[in-house]
Design brief:
CATH architecture of the largest domain: Orthogonal Bundle
Largest sheet: 3 strands, antiparallel
CATH topology of the largest domain: Globin-like
Bound molecules: protoporphyrin IX containing FE
Structural class: mainly alpha
CATH superfamily of the largest domain: Globins
Number of domains: 2
Strand content: 5-15%
Number of helices: 9
Radius of gyration: 18 Å
CATH class of the largest domain: Mainly Alpha
Distance between the termini: 37 Å
Shape: globular
Strand order of the largest sheet: 1-3-2
Number of strands: 3
Length: 165
């Protein structure tokens, strides 16, 4: 991880940062292998915040709707994608480390349970992933961040599988 993304703080400074109202959505804190306190910018901040998260959800569903490569996952969704766009945007905001817009509205996401009505195997997972990767490319997401997000998305997408192909 690039050093400019890590902020090492003495305990007093760290406590101060944690009490400011700005800290909550902008840093994830933890300890490194040496037990030193670290504060790291969240994916939400590195991506560019609310405006880009909204654009990512919209681009994702634009591509899903327009590109026949994603027909398999498109046909699982409602004809009107407005609800899906909003829910993905709200969910991603919190999932990336920003404001928890989805849980504020609906409580725990319980994503796997909410996906059970839709038959999801490896084909659907891979289409979803390809669509998200294209959306990130179209928005010009920086390559290191994109690689990290693809790995994180894959874990969640793979967890949604509920049928054997
Ligand atoms: C693995 C492949 C996936 C497929 C095929 C899939 C498909 C779907 C479908 C069909 C819906 C319902 C949309 C509607 O009502 O029209 C949905 C909802 C949703 N999906 Fe996915 N999804 C996948 C993976 C993911 C992943 C990886 C995430 C998050 C990173 C995600 C986040 C959501 C959210 C937040 C909702 C709204 C849930 C609700 O409140 O009802 N999905 N998805």
């Amino acid at each position: 991880m690039a050093s400019h993304r890590l902020i090492l703080l003495c305990p007093e400074l760290r406590r101060f940062a944690e009490t400011t109202r700005y800290n909550y959505h902008f840093f994830a804190s933890g300890k490194n292998a040496m037990g030193v306190n670290l504060m790291m910018e969240t994916h939400y901040v590195r991506l560019g915040g609310d405006e880009i998260v909204r654009k990512l959800a919209d681009r994702f569903y634009d591509l899903m709707h327009l590109d026949p490569d994603f027909h398999g996952v498109r046909k699982l969704h409602s004809p009107d994608l407005t609800g899906s766009r909003n829910k993905l945007y709200w969910f991603l905001s919190g999932w990336l480390g920003g404001p928890p817009l989805y849980t504020d509205r609906f409580g725990h996401p319980a994503l796997r349970r909410r996906h059970l009505p839709f038959a999801i195997g490896m084909i659907e997972r891979d289409q979803w992933m390809a669509c998200m990767e294209r959306a990130m490319e179209d928005l010009g997401v920086e390559v290191t961040l994109k690689t990290e997000l693809i790995a994180a998305f894959f874990k969640t997408a793979d967890f949604m599988r509920n049928k054997t192909d």
